[in-house]
Amino acid sequence: MTKIQAADVAKLRRQTGAGMMDCKKALIESDGDFDNAITVLRKKGQKVAAQRADRETSQGIAVVKINESMNSGVAIVLACETDFVAKNDSFKELANSFANVAISCEDKESFLNADFDGMTVAEKLIEQTGVIGEKLDISSFEKLDAPYVGSYTHGLKIAVLVGLSKNIEKADILAKDLSMQVASMGATTLSYKDFTSDYLKSETDARIAVIEKENIELQRLGKTLKNVPTYISMSQLTSEILSKAEEEIKTTLKNEGKPEHIWDKIVPGKMTRFILDNTTLDQEQCLLDQIFIKDENKKVSEYINSYDNNVSVIGFKRVSLG
Fold this sequence. Notes:
The protein is α+β, with helices and mostly antiparallel strands. It has helices at 6-16, 20-29, 34-51, 83-86, 89-102, 108-112, 121-132, 171-185, 197-220, 239-255, 263-277, 280-285, 300-307; strands spanning 59-66, 72-80, 115-116, 119-120, 137-145, 148-154, 158-164, 313-320.
């Protein structure tokens, strides 16, 4: 039997990440042949992966990588089964190593087939499943190209990329602020202008149904009922609807005995309130229409314009666990 050298065990461990005993056993099984030992470890990974194929990978780490030109970025989630593994430094290093490969790939499929130290990323995932003992998966992959790409990672659980229309002074700060907004408020699109009429109708009907159901219980308990919305997006607020709302506000002020010469000071605030009450979908899903988390007196679009009115957001990507 070939004598196994400690140096070979250490080398195999550095290359595969497997434990010392697993590396030694693989070298013994392969009669000291280094390449065959790697094959042995890969087969072990395949066996473990097959055994754990139906396991949920709800834990993991979200990471981003931006290229040197700051015009392309990628965000991925390396998922595993337990938080214990996700917190391990070697797991974090593996995730960042994957991100370094992902930055050169256009989509998840090309990424999984990309080279990773002589094997594909998909094969590396299987190998590391055998090493770690948990199912591993790339549960999210998002790529973003723009004249300037910035990012933000929240607690290793959420990663966001934001693309700006140009590389301006302090673009990094603006992009990070916007990425934090996306991470915190979970926007799914840029503007209310992106909504289709069919989506707006179905979403409006769904929200009304939920509130009406809640109001039945509130009424039973003798509590104040929630307002049932007529509109949920700026897309629905035509000029005629806004004019009608303004006239109704003025009629109310007149009936309340408010002198007409002060209406100009009251009406704008009430119109702002009317718009806020009737654009809840925009505030939830549209980045540019949300209230800016760092200044509740501004919408995100207003913050961008106050920062630099010659730059715009051309896209964003968000990945998270679960």
